[in-house]
């Protein structure tokens, strides 16, 4: 029994990791399909003044077979309006991280938001604008703290400031990420370090990536 328990745990961890990577793969595919239709990657849904109302995770619902849910949202109201906040509990399974503590309506799948990142507020990013290479730029990462899936909130990024803590992670210092080419990678954030992680976040910094993914 002493040998069996660790083996079972490893199998469960592997299954959770594979499930999460599949979620990320579907999210990345949805982002590409959105791009094909609209000519740019998804961004937060905003009002006429550019104020974010709903997350890009809501914007891609029609591309993850959730068009019926998408049509229930009032797109001209914020995520926490009396109407829209009732839909938080209907979070699609694709936004549930099987490797991390689960809370109703909260997701760990986020992008980086800020100058030079893929989810830069107020900018409609085309794939062609990711000049550092689609395979060298993070689209979506799995990391805490979790946020309401409909809320226009991601990981804040400022090239001139330290990165915020990314905790918890699926496995110690390792996490899963979808790159802009749709590939899924396991990132060891401790091994990569903050300097290299910044290079993966920025879409057009012009700096080479000097390491190989696992």
UniProtKB/TrEMBL annotation:
Cross-referenced InterPro entries: DUF1559, Pilin-like
Domain of life: Bacteria
Organism: Thermogemmata fonticola
SUPFAM superfamilies: Pili subunits
Name of the protein: DUF1559 domain-containing protein
Domain DUF1559: 9-101
Residues passing through the membrane, by range: none
């Amino acid at each position: 029994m002493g040998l069996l328990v660790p083996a079972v745990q490893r199998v469960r961890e592997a299954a959770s990791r594979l499930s999460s990577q599949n979620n990320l793969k579907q999210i990345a595919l949805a982002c590409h399909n959105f791009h094909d239709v609209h000519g740019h990657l998804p961004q937060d849904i905003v009002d006429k003044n550019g104020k974010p109302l709903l997350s890009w995770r809501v914007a891609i619902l029609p591309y993850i077979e959730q068009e019926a849910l998408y049509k229930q949202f009032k797109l001209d109201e914020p995520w926490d309006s009396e109407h829209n906040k009732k839909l938080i509990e209907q979070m699609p399974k694709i936004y549930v991280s099987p490797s991390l503590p689960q809370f109703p309506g909260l997701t760990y799948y986020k992008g980086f938001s800020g100058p030079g990142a893929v989810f830069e507020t107020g900018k409609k990013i085309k794939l062609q604008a990711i000049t550092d290479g689609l395979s060298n730029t993070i689209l979506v990462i799995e990391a805490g703290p979790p946020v309401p899936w409909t809320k226009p909130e991601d990981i804040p990024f400022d090239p001139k400031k330290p990165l915020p803590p990314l905790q918890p992670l699926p496995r110690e210092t390792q996490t899963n990420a979808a790159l802009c080419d749709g590939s899924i990678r396991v990132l060891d954030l401790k091994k990569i370090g903050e300097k290299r992680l910044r290079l993966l976040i920025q879409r057009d910094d012009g700096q080479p990536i000097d390491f190989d993914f696992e």
